[in-house]
Request: fold
Amino acid sequence: MFDFSIITTAIDQFLRSLMPSAMAVFLECVLVAVCVIVAYVLLAIVMIFMERKVCAAFQCRLGPMRVGFWGLLQVFADVFKMIIKEIIHFKRTDNLLYNLAPYLVVLSSLLTFSCLPFARGLEVLDFNMGIFFVMATSSFGVLGIMLAGWSSNNKYSMIGAMRSGAQMVSYELSIGLSMLTLVALSGTMQLSEIVERQADTWFIFKGHLPALTAFIIYLIAGNAETNRGPFDLPEAESELTAGYHTEYSGMGFGFFYVAEFMNLFIVSGIASTLFLGGWMPLHIPGLDGFNAVMDFIPGIVWFMGKTFFVIWLLMWVKWTFPRLRIDQVITLEWKYLVPIGLINLLIMTLCVVMGWTL
Amino acid sequence: MELNTLSIIFAGLATMMVAASLLAVTTRNIMRATVYLLFVLFGTAGIYFILHYAFLGAVQVTVYAGGIIVLFVFAALLIGRGTRDLTHTSILRYTAGFTAAVTGLALSVYLIFTHSFPEVKSPTSIVPMNLIGHTMMGADKYNFVLPFEVVSVLLLACMVGALLIARKR
Reply:
């Protein structure tokens, strides 16, 4: 498999030969940040287009068709519209918090995004407790949503924010438990190392029943964590106008919108890293010829393919199921998912200790 | 200390923390105070990261930014309007607050000037996760299984208490 660290090391050495190392490190940080932000925005545009097409397909429509071939330029037109929109300020709102809130949400999802291992050697933040860092950075996104709801000085926003807070704080627990189950199986928390250890078999096959249960719990909780699908009560448009971002216009709304889609991408990316092997090709022990053929497909194609497969699963759920009530959401989490997750963690630990893994 | 990248980052973080702490105690809006406090806690996490204590930094972000601050915001939302009138407090409260502040300041200044600040060897690379796990759950010397369990019993007691209060009669 191609190792991207060859390219990054070459760039690093080239920069260090030109300037002092502190300057080089600073320049690299800026470069990496620009790359991450560009990738973030481009992926968001791809996902918004995909969402509209998938939604249209599920509703037997065509979706956007007029702008560009097959509607391909529609999202770019929408982005342009969003940028030139007027930003409206309200009188009795807390302006500081109102303007800060979208940035908190985007910051949280950008930090989480930069933890994803896209291919071998192509990851920005790779700590030895990477999966925990992912949880840490994704945990303060809810704060931005709550501040947005509060500072808008609007009852709909407020209710949306409260719902979102209750929902996201609850479902974080299930996400943590299913991640912990996989950490027990992999024996490491470093994301790149987790991918390396799936070289023989992906964890969803290696951990068979408990891993599959954890995968399903993770998908449900991840869908709730992104405020999407049947869990979109924080912005239930039929009852709360647009929930916590009712009062936002222009790019303030754009940030929330992009962060929501990118959180979906991040949830799917983490799911594909933990369960489906990330950029690791499909390897079947014993079939060496098959494995060698699979290695010819680049890692980034594998990662994107798996991630978009999970995204498609989540979109399928979103456009199929009706919205839950808030008490049903909380009941589902605390009375079903958390106990199942805890028992599942025990079973997984037992499997790992007894060596009952594939 | 020579001027290197780390000291520049540290200076930035420290300035942010001091400014945010001052703003947190001087603002009259409880919601803004919470947000300023969030930036202080982010700064602390940043300092842990530059000391190579990545796990501690992540815990700081999870527990404080993602847990405590969200809890504060929830509490502030539930007690009604975010802005509380803090101008008309009794003289007794002023005296109590002033005494507490002066005592805290005196104690901190005394400790800073009398403590010898021995050279502590901080790790040169990120502390491995396995070592942290073994130290947390080990029963040998300098291991922390007892405090760990005591804290979990305390949390259990808190949860039982909260359930008892929230229970429908």
